[in-house]
Design goal:
Layout (H helix, E strand, L loop, with lengths): L12 H4 L3 E5 L6 H11 L6 E3 L3 H9 L15 E6 L7 H12 L3 E6 L3 H6 L9 E5 L5 H4 L11 H4 L11 H10 L4 H6 L2 H23 L5 H10 L11 H7 L3 H13 L3 E6 L13 E4 L8 H22 L6 E6 L5 E7 L4 E7 L9 H9 L3 E6 L5 E5 L2 E5 H5 L4
Parallel strand pairs: 1-4, 1-5, 2-3, 3-4, 6-8, 10-11, 11-13
Antiparallel strand pairs: 6-7, 8-9, 9-10, 12-13
């Protein structure tokens, strides 16, 4: 079983300062398995409570603070995991009462499907009582079994004097991720045939359960059609008008359906960076899949893979308190474009171009590095241990070396 090292920060008492941990992310990404393993490592596995279980529901009906009966008799602080509690009526009030009364003895961890992240935004009565963390598709460090890296400033304050070699198995691990998925089960099985079968079941489950529960969408068939129209549009700004005719619906309906697919962690979007960039496009977003295996064309799948890895890093840096970062792309009206840019509220720090096999430097990369003042620019290629410096803080770099620098 793969260790989800990205969960370690979410389960570190010294960083939580007594607050609850909310852990959100896609279905079948490993939240339940990871928290169960964590509790077992502390000898506290009996403090895992799944609110889908009839036994837990019965205990709650009998005694609302039922977990107190199981608390350790000694003074040791206890971790209590409440899985899928957000499916229960008035779950926020339940958690608020638990936290206010038992925060001195209990470290609460709240896990669940993608719906947890959605519901917490709708009138949040728990502000100041929790930190939200995300468990996202696998990264290079996790598949190599590498312990969590020491927490540093993002990419050494966005300037790299030298690039260390990657682990010798990193390149092969990346090829396995590209062939299968960043979800633990298909990656662990390791065959594209299994990944294809798994993917169909995974999407069917989300479309027919999560989306029906979260939204008022009744035309699931059309939404499923939208999902299968998106892979050929990965890597390009998406025109919603181009989807109206094949879906036979209005512009606003397409927008709401894309928003719904994001809420259940099937896709994510990145907006164009427009601040202080002349002739930039202003509106159209790019859409990518959390499961990059949905994208059949290898070049665009590689770009989608890099997008997901960068989004992982952004989430980690934000949750570590290293800043408030977002992932963007850069594009001007005359067609100049760079795939990705990581920026905070003030400036662009890192720009990244994903080229599966092209070692020749894209001329757009130094152009946008100059225009944005980005401290670091990298063209990422799918080549083992490759690394060539093209200018000050300007590199063409193999994915194994670049991704080994990310959390």
């Amino acid at each position: 079983m793969i260790e989800r090292h990205s969960l370690s920060w979410a389960l570190s008492e010294k960083h939580l300062h007594g607050r609850m941990s909310f852990i959100a992310g896609p279905r079948q990404i490993g939240k339940t398995t990871s928290i169960q393993r964590f509790l077992k490592s502390r000898g506290q596995e009996r403090f895992y409570y799944n609110w889908d279980s009839p036994l837990v529901k019965k205990r709650y009906a009998t005694n609302h603070a039922f977990f107190v009966e199981d608390l350790l008799s000694e003074a040791e602080r206890t971790w209590v995991s409440l899985d899928e509690i957000h499916k229960y009526p008035k779950w926020k009030n339940i958690l608020k009462g638990y936290y206010d009364e038992w925060k001195g003895r209990v470290q609460f961890v709240v896990t669940g499907s993608a719906r947890l992240d959605f519901f917490r935004k709708s009138g949040d009565s728990l502000v100041g009582r929790y930190f939200l963390f995300h468990l996202l598709p696998l990264g290079v460090g996790e598949i190599l079994g590498r312990p969590p890296l020491p927490i540093q400033e993002p990419l050494q304050k966005w300037a790299l004097a030298s690039i260390p070699l990657a682990d010798e198995s990193a390149h092969d691990g990346i090829q396995s991720l590209l062939q299968t998925s960043g979800f633990p089960e298909p990656f662990s099985v390791g065959t594209s045939d299994f990944a294809t079968r798994w993917r169909e079941d995974h999407f069917s489950l989300i479309l027919r359960e999560d989306l029906r529960d979260l939204t008022k969408i009744s035309e699931i068939r059309k939404l499923e059609t939208l999902l299968y129209l998106l892979p050929e549009r990965v890597g390009s700004p998406l025109s919603l008008n181009s989807l109206k005719q094949p879906l036979e619906c209005a512009h606003g309906t397409v927008a709401s359906w894309l928003n719904a697919l994001q809420k259940v962690y099937l896709i994510f979007s990145i907006a164009p960076w427009t601040s202080r960039l002349s002739r930039s496009i202003l509106k159209e977003e790019k859409y990518y899949f959390w499961d990059w295996g949905m994208v059949p064309e290898t070049g665009f799948r590689f770009e989608n893979f890099i997008a997901a890895q960068l989004q992982r890093a952004v989430a980690a840096w934000n949750e570590w308190g290293k800043g408030v970062f977002r992932l963007y792309y850069l594009r001007t009206k005359d067609g100049r474009e760079v795939d990705f840019a990581i920026a905070d509220r003030k400036r662009v720090h890192l720009i990244v171009e994903a080229k599966e096999s092209e070692e020749a430097l894209s001329p757009h990369l130094p152009y946008f590095q100059e225009k944005t003042g980005a401290a670091l620019a990298v063209q990422v290629v799918n080549k083992k241990q490759f690394c060539v410096q093209k200018g000050k803080n300007l590199w063409v770099m193999g994915a194994d070396r670049f991704l080994s620098l990310l959390p």
